[in-house]
Amino acid sequence: MNKQEIPYKIYLEESEMPKAWYNVRADMVNKPAPLLNPETKKPMTEEELSQIFCRELARQELNDTDAWIEIPQEIRDFYRMYRPSPLVRAYCLEEKLQTPAKIYYKFEGNNTSGSHKLNSAIAQAYYAKQQGLKGVTTETGAGQWGTALSMACSYFGLDCKVFMVKVSYEQKPFRREVMRTYGANVTPSPSDTTAVGRRILEEFPGTTGSLGCAISEAVEAAASREGYRYVLGSVMNQVLLHQSVIGLETKAALDKYDIKPDIIIGCAGGGSNLGGLVGPFAGQKIRGESDVRLIAVEPASCPSLTRGSYIYDFCDTGKVCPLQKMYTLGSGFIPSSSHAGGLRYHGMSSVVSQLYHDGLMEAVTVSQTEVFQAAVEFARVEGILPAPESSHAIRVAMDEAMKCKETGEEKTIVFGLTGTGYFDMFAYQRFNDGQMSDYIPTDEEIAQSLAKAPRL
Amino acid sequence: MNKQEIPYKIYLEESEMPKAWYNVRADMVNKPAPLLNPETKKPMTEEELSQIFCRELARQELNDTDAWIEIPQEIRDFYRMYRPSPLVRAYCLEEKLQTPAKIYYKFEGNNTSGSHKLNSAIAQAYYAKQQGLKGVTTETGAGQWGTALSMACSYFGLDCKVFMVKVSYEQKPFRREVMRTYGANVTPSPSDTTAVGRRILEEFPGTTGSLGCAISEAVEAAASREGYRYVLGSVMNQVLLHQSVIGLETKAALDKYDIKPDIIIGCAGGGSNLGGLVGPFAGQKIRGESDVRLIAVEPASCPSLTRGSYIYDFCDTGKVCPLQKMYTLGSGFIPSSSHAGGLRYHGMSSVVSQLYHDGLMEAVTVSQTEVFQAAVEFARVEGILPAPESSHAIRVAMDEAMKCKETGEEKTIVFGLTGTGYFDMFAYQRFNDGQMSDYIPTDEEIAQSLAKAPRL
Q1: Domain end marker among B221, B237, B253
Q2: This prediction's pTM
Q3: Residue B353 in contact with residue B359, Cβ under 8 Å?
Q4: A353-401, pLDDT tens digit by residue?
Q5: Which residues in chain A (390-449) have CB-CB distances under 8 A to chain B?
Q6: What is the predicted ipTM?
Q7: Could you say which DSSP state residue B117 is in?
Q8: Same structural domain, A231 and A309
């Protein structure tokens, strides 16, 4: 195939878009371990989960038998506003690297939330609306998820309360302003609007907040209001299910041009993008239909898959959420300051954890500085300024392409470009000014954090 | 036609993209008046223009006979990285407005420069490279043009010196950082790197700069360097020529689905987007093939078409550029503080001016507050946060759609959505906080400014 045959951007027709999400758990031989009730240590029931999530989402969370779950028409209509996303052939990057490899990326950044987060936000808002709820609460760190949820709630006329980590609320006023423009109520966390927030403010008067604290406030805010539920943007099975639209579109676009991928690469934080992208391909591997390599890319500062333990752990620092078996660095792990806010989670989705544990997926770590080197090189030749998170995948795609240059192999490399970096220019500024630092946690730090994991 | 027949987004195939730009001047009965040498008051020759612009661009500037000018393959390859841009059917907006009108928008914001500016930036950088130049200089106010040019120069390995109005340089550090990421040299203007900058700094020590001053610095910086030329992003014929790719794609997409537009609407600053969007349709009108209405939307704070005079005027406040016959408020006109930085130009492209003068185009003004009301409403239903400039067109498209609701007419309305507002969140914040103001210049202010126009 050559430049004339494969377009720069492969767009599916709207009629070719997925009509059902793919649930890889149905095909997994070793299912992800069940969520446990933190009190009883017994598997969470649908009834229990429905106190936290919308009922339909609780069902999806527990469903590991149905491989396909129909996407409701209203969600498909919303998807058509910003999807299908393009599968881009990186001709310019290939030329720049002088590699025989063929590089493709699935670009999820062409929507106002700036990332793939909208794929699940709209689904969660839809089910909340269907259930007759008034609104939802959530937390946001860097702000992508909060933005996506604000857009989704605005579309369905739901109230949206976002607890935004105070340091981000102050340092990223523009993200906050996008959420406000979509009608969301954005509160800096910790706040005096919740009991847990007031307690933390009393104990640590000058705190700039943390994701763990914001989660606790969002959960309390939902529980204390009639007609509200808590929603979240990563880690959970339901989120990976919705994000499978990424992998399904990618596979359909590749199939359309009869392209067989050799390597699929995604950045890994909580696993929402990675699980969604690789899901359908992992299914093929499980069924023996493919031997494509799947690679998870973690920041060296927060290496849950590569240096964590595969155990039951708390999902939140407040320890109010169900226990989950996953690769984890311990729920108290504080990653060093990093500009990829979306990858700073201590654990990993149980689906991704199990796929990795079963040898169906590899994992590598990369340092922040080399990630930004790749980001700038990519931006200059491909014309898209990538999000720091996405740039982890770019780094490894470029590394794999350079290996092909050495060996002369014409491998087909596909990676997930989850979003744009327009709200991350402070990070780029640090890099442009040569002031970016890399910190890698010591074995002792990880061991100390893991020592506080729950005993079952 | 219904929802099933017309997709949400009409994407042309890459093979259907324009292979030549359309030069509406060739079809105009009354040609735009020639540029005049500010010293001799005689029409500028290609030789004279080539001292300022690349030779090929000087040729394009003067060419009012060739209707089609081939797009070089290298530029077409670059276009394929971010084009074709989608023509979107605004189903959700139609439903929200409960209008029988059919609304479409041509969305130019899905590239990292965030606007249509890249269409001309890449062409200008290409011709500079072809001529063997080392680099180009330009000015930027809000930053869209500077960003687009930085991307284009990075792609062709050209040096790019951007003089950014100091107040923007300081208040929009993120725009500046995008340019730096693309390797551009960004200098706050006025600066001590040019004679004119030093003179202004001496005279007005605390000045935060102006576009006029930045133009003067950029022109001097190009003139004083071997192998450099000055480039700019609007007003000139060459820019409108390159931007015709917007209108050509729009027309091809409409033709593909046999859609006949009744009204085409674009925001009007210097005229780059408007001229590019309406060009091919104006050609049809001139040839008697269509009676589509073309509407230019100006900010009430800077109403050059609707309240200016059609005379020869200076293009820059420094008065170093050629004189141009255009609708103008006078080169010393200072529009009130507005958040649509791209629409704050005192004059209007001579092509747009002539089309308007000949009755081929209408013009209306809208106030800032009503523009942001439309922007937020649009963002909430269509999922795209629009640039303040683009939102002028949204406002009038919505107004026209509401008129259809009254009359029951099923008109087809097309407008240009030139870009996204991700770097304009300060403006949205002002609006969200209810602190946006509207200022409309008095007749006296405009008359005083026009009194200083050159006497010929």
Answers
A1: B237
A2: 0.95
A3: no
A4: 999 999 999 999 999 999 999 999 999 999 999 999 999 999 999 999 9
A5: 420, 422-423, 425-426, 428-429, 432
A6: 0.93
A7: T
A8: no
